[in-house]
């Protein structure tokens, strides 16, 4: 069972995220214009309710199964046994939650005073059933170090969802049509995912396969579902409390800034999906602790480069992207800057804890982060305004990320000295970068100022890293040569032995 190399696997993971982001952005723009505020609001409400149900439908099983699959990477029979066990559990949880949401659709619609919400909720029940199985396939490929398969899966699901949603809305209109388009996309994605898994394993996990390890998967999943639920609550605590205390307009100010920083997490998620599974206790391949250290180092370097622009140029960035009506979002963006840095390294750290089998230790950490966020918001929202939600997010993450890193450090014996030096040097470079940006200006910027100022700031950052000894000239040359080799090889690297293997790096 071939697997992608770490760099190539990370590239495929990033490509998958970019793919779904493009389709999602295009579909959102279409739905907003085609449905209008009222019907798009119904669709969004159904989507939010379905998202809460999704956590219950998953029940932590995809993440739990991924850990045990990663431990058996290279053993097709062992992977198949785990997959069959996980699939059986997922069918039960997804069917129960989807059925419950479908039955509760009318009572929920009545509680909101929106009778037209019932059918979108029924469609969302079908959607979360398909999405639950689709998510399992994504986690299987991640655990097997085959994110190249996820690119195909994400493209198939995203393209089908966009096509079906646009066609149904054009023909019938309404929020229910959009919700059924989403359901078609995810059910199609579930079928494609199962077909790709069977093809990759070269063996069909059928009736003859004994369902071994269901209890172990479910036991570990219990910890994951607590973590997932608490994290979803943490992610939504700020907007919900802002809405309750300050009103909907303030929610928009905070949410606008929060949406701007979403793409900054893509690289961290991609590196985590490639590196974290290799930290599982695999009897055949062992743990690749060097990959964890290297990945963490480069994530620190890359995300430190985002600090200066988000602090110094927060005003121009908000004015350019969001427009003058969201000028208050600039200060929120500045306050959230430490969160952007920590969010860059958090996925690798958190997923590594999951894969080394210590997810249970994350429970008190994520609950503490949730509590801190809520307390800060409740205490400071009235005197400070919407900035308090950003402060709560940052303070909570300053506890959440280091506490989980301590688990990784103990499990993988990660040395603190090199990482501490990298952080210090990266922050020094960010300071130099910020000085250049400040000299260029912090008000309205011309096109030349954006381009030349940004280039000069990046050059200052790179020069600081080189002069401080964090990055050597030899390392830069080696990286450029590696990038050139990857681009010249394309999708057919040496050593591939089959049509499927030829599309992945060795």
Number of strands: 0
Portion of residues in beta strands equals: under 5%
How many distinct folded domains?
2
Radius of gyration: 23 Å
Provide the residue-averaged pLDDT: 81
The helix/strand class is mainly alpha
Major sheet characteristics: none
Query: Spans of 5+ residues with little confidence (pLDDT < 50)?
Result: 205-212, 489-506
Helix/strand order, N-terminal first: HHHHHHHHHHHHHHHHHHHH
Query: How many H/I helical runs?
Result: 20
Explain what you see.
The chain is mainly α and 506 residues long. The chain has two domains: 6-212, no CATH class; 243-276 and 287-424, no CATH class. It contains 20 helices and no strands. The protein has helices at 6-58, 61-71, 76-103, 105-112, 118-143, 147-172, 175-201, 214-245, 248-260, 266-275, 289-304, 307-312, 314-321, 329-335, 337-355, 362-384, 387-412, 416-440, 447-467, 473-489. α11 (289-304) packs parallel to α18 (416-440).
